[in-house]
Amino acid sequence: MTPRRVLLLSRPRHRIRIAILDDHPIVALGVATYLRDHADFELVASVSSVDDLFVVIERGECDVALVDFYLPGDRYDGATFVRRLRVEAPPIAIVVLSAARAADAECVCHRAGANAFVEKTTPLPLIAETIRSAVAAPRKFFVVRERKVEARVPHPREDMLSASEIEILRHIAEGLSVTQTAARLMRSKKTVSTHKRSAMRKLRVADDLGLALFLKEKFRY
């Protein structure tokens, strides 16, 4: 038996066809190069815009969409994009690969209809394993915990917030600053700031970017 025939027989009957969407070319190149080296993967496209991804999907050429979450150059971004992708391509496994912290984005991605979430700092072998898991068990949601891929349902963090904290976050979601929120609610700036910091701590949000992501999903107008 020739080496070529051995190689062909060792490959899966159906390779997992993957389309990558990422507007950062270095990240896309690194992930694509790694995935190409696996016999059970077939990289069908690496694109930088939502429209280009949907062209690939409409041709029925992929089983998995490995997508970024923040796409500031596109008209669709974050959870809105994931929801649209889920509605227009129900059979496809959606794996979100994002620079956002898992604590900030997992629940949002799960609610939007994704099959998995991984941070961009995740080792490449775990990204590959997450893709396989999402395809093998499409009804589950996969995350990475302590360098292991696990099926897990992220719990909404807002359940821990007090009524005062939710009220203040609702005003901040409208675009008001701490000072403006304090004036509208007729409370001291210190009180509003304290509630904001308390809410961020409960939500495990480290900075205003993480808070903005949460607010965008929780308080959509």
UniProtKB/TrEMBL annotation:
<dbReference type="GO" id="GO:0003677">
    <property type="term" value="F:DNA binding"/>
</dbReference>
<dbReference type="InterPro" id="IPR058245">
    <property type="entry name" value="NreC/VraR/RcsB-like_REC"/>
</dbReference>
<keyword id="KW-0238">DNA-binding</keyword>
<feature type="domain" description="Response regulatory">
    <location>
        <begin position="17"/>
        <end position="135"/>
    </location>
</feature>
<dbReference type="GO" id="GO:0000160">
    <property type="term" value="P:phosphorelay signal transduction system"/>
</dbReference>
<protein>
    <submittedName>
        <fullName>DNA-binding response regulator</fullName>
    </submittedName>
</protein>
<dbReference type="InterPro" id="IPR000792">
    <property type="entry name" value="Tscrpt_reg_LuxR_C"/>
</dbReference>
<keyword id="KW-0597">Phosphoprotein</keyword>
<feature type="domain" description="HTH luxR-type">
    <location>
        <begin position="154"/>
        <end position="219"/>
    </location>
</feature>
<dbReference type="Pfam" id="PF00072">
    <property type="entry name" value="Response_reg"/>
</dbReference>
<feature type="modified residue" description="4-aspartylphosphate">
    <location>
        <position position="68"/>
    </location>
</feature>
<dbReference type="InterPro" id="IPR016032">
    <property type="entry name" value="Sig_transdc_resp-reg_C-effctor"/>
</dbReference>
<dbReference type="InterPro" id="IPR036388">
    <property type="entry name" value="WH-like_DNA-bd_sf"/>
</dbReference>
<dbReference type="InterPro" id="IPR039420">
    <property type="entry name" value="WalR-like"/>
</dbReference>
<dbReference type="InterPro" id="IPR011006">
    <property type="entry name" value="CheY-like_superfamily"/>
</dbReference>
<dbReference type="Pfam" id="PF00196">
    <property type="entry name" value="GerE"/>
</dbReference>
<dbReference type="InterPro" id="IPR001789">
    <property type="entry name" value="Sig_transdc_resp-reg_receiver"/>
</dbReference>
<dbReference type="GO" id="GO:0006355">
    <property type="term" value="P:regulation of DNA-templated transcription"/>
</dbReference>
